Every structure is written in structure tokens, then in C-alpha cells.
Amino acid sequence: MTGFRTDIEIARAADKKPIMEIGAKLGIPSGELLPYGHDKAKVSAAFIRSLAGRPQGRLILVTAINPTPAGEGKTTTTVGLGDGLNRIGKRAALCIREASLGPNFGMKGGAAGGGYAQVVPMEDMNLHFTGDFHAITTAHNLLSALIDNHIYWGNELEIDTRRVTWRRVMDMNDRALRQIVCSLGGIANGFPREAGFDITVASEVMAILCLASDLEDLERRLGDIIVGYRRDKSPVFARDLKAQGAMAVLLKDAMQPNLVQTLENNPAFVHGGPFANIAHGCNSVVATTTALRLADYVVTEAGFGADLGAEKFFDIKCRKAGLTPAAAVIVATVRALKMNGGVKKDDLGAEDVAAVREGCANLGRHIENVKQFGVPAIVAINHFASDTEAEIEAVKAFAAEQGVEAVLCRHWAEGSAGIEELAHKVADLADSGVAQFAPLYADETGLFDKIDTIVKRIYRGSEAIADKSVRDQLHQWERQGYGHLPVCMAKTQYSFSTDPNLRGAPTGHVVPVREVRLAAGAGFVVAICGEIMTMPGLPRSPSSERIFLNERGEIEGLF
Fold it and tell me: Residue range 310-334: average pLDDT?
């Protein structure tokens, strides 16, 4: 692969247009854009309100097989497809998530695409961007401070300090903060208690911002957050602490979607960023609905593989926002399929058609799962230089056996020119009207039955299991009126099971639910399965060791 320019080199050489020109492509007046420099802007809330009642375009979801160290390129394909649709004369926009600082400095890398299918400015997007995540972190921690302050000044609400469920957050991987004891140091610092930190992208405030329809809805949802319980186990809400108003003030600008552009100067909304393995993994509803009223086709993505990202996109985001996806694209690479077929990462360069066929079982499972939601699918084979014709044909043949088409895409190396065929086929699929979208389970299904349904129908496990205390908690929430909420599965992204090393398409495994959390403001119940952590740690050699400023003051080391 030597001789290829790095993503950041390509992004740095981009011929960016002024952001006002990008907004004009969608009919956004320059006065309704709030610029952050010359190449990014927020879309005003007033303009978004003015779009109410407009017809919506076609919504296209890009999802993928389970991630592997070999790489899949879901965001790259999302960006490439958006450019491809514009290339063939369609009015298309992108909707993707913002990047978390934690994974950038850890091991996952950036979230702006790659090669010649990127969103720019790449450095800004992968670092502080427009400050949305800082605002979310601050609003979340304001509520944390108000809880301990209320307890310090007499605890009029009678909060049981053993039952405070609201943790603190920061947008960085730091395993040392997973479990802490706070308020040490004597009387002046309050009452010591056990606490902990999650990463910002796991914050309920992040989920609320991404699911709220406007500022009024945002403030209502913030007030609905449950921060803990009294000794009689009755809930204490953020509104009991009079926190929602100040939190909404901190989030006022963060609620407005960010507009940027692709390398080919096509519009991209980049807004919100809940993790897909520990949160619901979709960009904001406000950004998606705004794009749908401005473009004929909107290409969006859901995090990680379809077992997590697509399921939550369909069962949480689309259900709550009333969205109806018209088509889905499932991204796969020959390399990742070979890993699912048992090939080690160091051996991926050698042709192995048998391993590709073996690994296609993972792809097949995702195809079946997307079809369960009534959404027509197509497979995008994200091309790598090491792929052979025989391996590519094996993927196409397998997809045909599943009743879907697989299209080879070269957008990483060629930009929109390398994905024209997929663009035509996706547009035709979205226009066909064959989608009959429906969520996996009904609102009235019991909470544990919803978890068990996902385990059996999406993960193909034998059952979900949980201690009596977990089941009792779910029953209590049902009695309190939360039984209608969807569930958000917090599970490893690497496997259909809770074992990250079990690749392919396992069946019959048991999925243990070790903890449940009620996100009453966001409007879902989180089921934490297996060993998943809501505060990641850094690897032995984190990416931060290779990120620096060169002699020209330019950032080096970002993916």
C-alpha cells in the first residue's frame, strides 16, 4: 500500500469551498448559517423551524458487518455514496456523527471517512470541532455538581447517597475513573460516596441531544433524567433539582446541526455522537430531519455492525422520530470477511477464497437481520488493493444466494467515480417503494422480553439471562410507567455474542445482562451485557503517542 497519500494529507490538500456556498446548494440562506471559520457552520434553529411541513426525501442507512482489525470503511462508504449520488445528478446530503476525542487518542482513529471519500475539515472534526461535546460534558457535569451540592446543603429531597445513579463524564478514555470515591477531605467537601465516570459519548445528555426534536423537547427530556432514588426507592429527577433550564442554556448552540463538506464539496451534516456499543449510535434527529427536508436523498450511518448500529437506528431512532428508511447498504470488505473466516491479520494479503466464503456467514446474518425490519438491502464491497477477482466474485455470489446484490466500490481510491454503480442501484432501490419498515418489537412488549427478542432474533442467541435483581428492577420500571420504552443493548461490537473473539455467525450462545440503567430523559432502557465498559481504557500503545504538531504547525498522526 506504499505510495498512497494518508487521509490527513488528502484532507489537507482539499479544495474547500466557503461554507456559505455549501449551504446554498441546499437552499440555506447565508444569514441562517452561523459560521465557525470559513469551512464549517451551524444551521440556525429559526431556519430549521421554518422547514416544518416540507416533504421529506429518501433516507438511506449505511451499516456494516461486525468490525475487525482489518477494517470495513463504513463512514468512508457513507461519504462515498453521498458523493456518488450527487455525481449522478441527485440532490443528496450526508448525516454522520461527530468524533469522540477518547478513541482518537486511543485506538479507533477518526470518524471523517478516508482516502478520497472524506468529510473536511478533517482535523477539526476529529478534535474539538464546534465544541458540541464540550457543551454536553459541561451540562452533564453541572447536574452531577448540583446533586452533591443539594446533598451538602441538607438534602431536602432525601436523596439516598447509596442510590445516586448519575455518574460524571469526560470525553477521554481513562479506566482509572471507572469507579471512584468522591467528596473526600472532610466536612467542607460533602459526604463521601462511591461514584464513577463514563465517557461523554455514553452520557444520557448526549442521547437526549441526539433524540430531541427542538429546544423545548430538549429541556423537557433533561428534566426527565433520573439522578437517583430515595430510601423508599422513589425516583429523584433532574427537574427536582431545577437543573434542566441551566443545562438547556449550555446546550443551546450544541443543539444546532453542524454543516461541513466532503472533498467533492457536497453538503454534510455532522452532529452528535453517541457510541454504538454503549449508547444508541446515531447522529442527531434534528440533523437527519433537517437534511431530509432539504435534500432528495439523505445518506446516514449507524455505528459498528448492523447487530448494534442498525438495530438501534431502527428500534430507537426511527421509532422515536417517526423516520421511515427507504434502503440500507451493508458494507463489507474481503479482508474482514477473511478474518471472520479464521484468517489472521498478518495473513490477509494472501488469496483465500475458502476463508472468504466461510466469513460470509457474518455478512449473511446481517443481511437477514436488516430484512427483518422490512428494509431492502444491498451490499457494498469496499475495495482494498489486495483483493483478488476470485475473492470478490465469491462475495458477489454469496450475496446473490441471499437475494441481494453486491457491488464493488472503489471510492477510497477514486472518490465518487469509484462508486457510481452503487449510487445508481441505491437510488433505484430507495425509489422503488418496496420498503415496509417496522421495528422489531412492539412498544407494549415487556422490557426483558424486548431484550430477549433482540438476543434471539438479531444475535441468534439461545436466551438472555439476568439475576433476579435485574429482572426486579425492570419490573419496577414497568410499574412506574417506563415499560413502553425501547431497549438499548450495550454489548461488544466485535461479535454477535458477548465474547469479542467469537467471530463469524455464532448461534445458541447465552447473553448475560449484568446491569440495567434507565435513561428516562433519552427514552430508553440500557441493558449492559457481558464485560462491556461505559468508560473505555487506552491500549498499551495509544494513538496519542503518534500525534504531534510538525515544524509548520500542522497536525500529524491523525488517521
Answer: 97
Average pLDDT over residues 163-189: 95
Q: Cα–Cα distance between 222 and 140 in angstroms, integer?
A: 10
Question: For the chain, what is the largest distance between any 2 Cα atoms, rounded to a whole number of angstroms?
Answer: 72
Backbone phi and psi for residue 463, each to the nearest 5 degrees, phi listed first: -170, 160
Q: Of these residues, 105, 314, 412, 448, which one is catalytic?
A: 412
**From 90, 97, 168, 503, the catalytic residue:** 97
Q: Are 323 and 317 in contact (CB under 8 A)?
A: yes
Residue 307 has, within 13 A of its CA and on its CB side, a CA count of 32
The CA angle 38-96-278, to the nearest 5 degrees, is 130
The reported pTM is: 0.95
Report helix, strand or coil for 176.
Answer: helix
Tens digits of residue pLDDT in 3-24: 578 888 899 899 999 999 999 9
Mean pLDDT of 209-224: 98
Is 133 a residue of the active site?
no
Out of 40, 42, 74, 319, which one is annotated catalytic? 74
Q: How far is CA 474 from CA 343, 478, 524, 526, in A?
A: 41, 6, 12, 11
Q: Average of pLDDT values for 461-485?
A: 97
d(CA 299, CA 95): 6
Told to judge if 63 belongs to the known catalytic residues of this protein, a careful annotator would answer: no
Looking at residue 444, its amino acid is: E
Active-site residue flag, 97: yes
- Beta strand 92-96 with 267-270 is parallel
- Give Rg (Cα) of the chain: 23
Q: Of these residues, 25, 91, 108, 514, which one is catalytic?
A: 108
pLDDT score of 144? 98
Active site (annotated) includes residue 161: no
Concerning whether 74 is annotated as a catalytic residue, the answer is yes
Q: Which three cell numbers stand for residue 262?
A: 466532503
Reported as a single tens digit per residue, the pLDDT across 37-79 is: 999 999 999 999 999 999 999 999 999 999 998 888 999 999 9
What secondary structure does DSSP assign to 358-426, as a single string? HHHHHHHHHHHHHHHTT--EEEEEE--TT--HHHHHHHHHHHHHTT--EEEE-HHHHGGGGGHHHHHHH
- Residue 110: predicted pLDDT: 64
Cα of 492 vs its chain's centroid, Å: 14
Burial degree of 413 (CB within 10 A; 0-12, 13-18, 19+): middle
- Which residue has 456559505 as its cell numbers? 20
Catalytic (active site) residue 153: no
Specify whether 384 is catalytic. yes
Residue 161 pLDDT greater than 60, yes or no:
yes
Nearest Cα neighbor of 493 from 343, 303, 335 is 303
Q: Return the pLDDT at 1.
A: 41
| Sign of the dihedral defined by the CA atoms of residues 177, 178, 183, 186, in that order | negative
Contacts with 183 (C-beta within 8 Å, 6 or more apart), sequence order:
148, 189, 190, 191, 192, 193
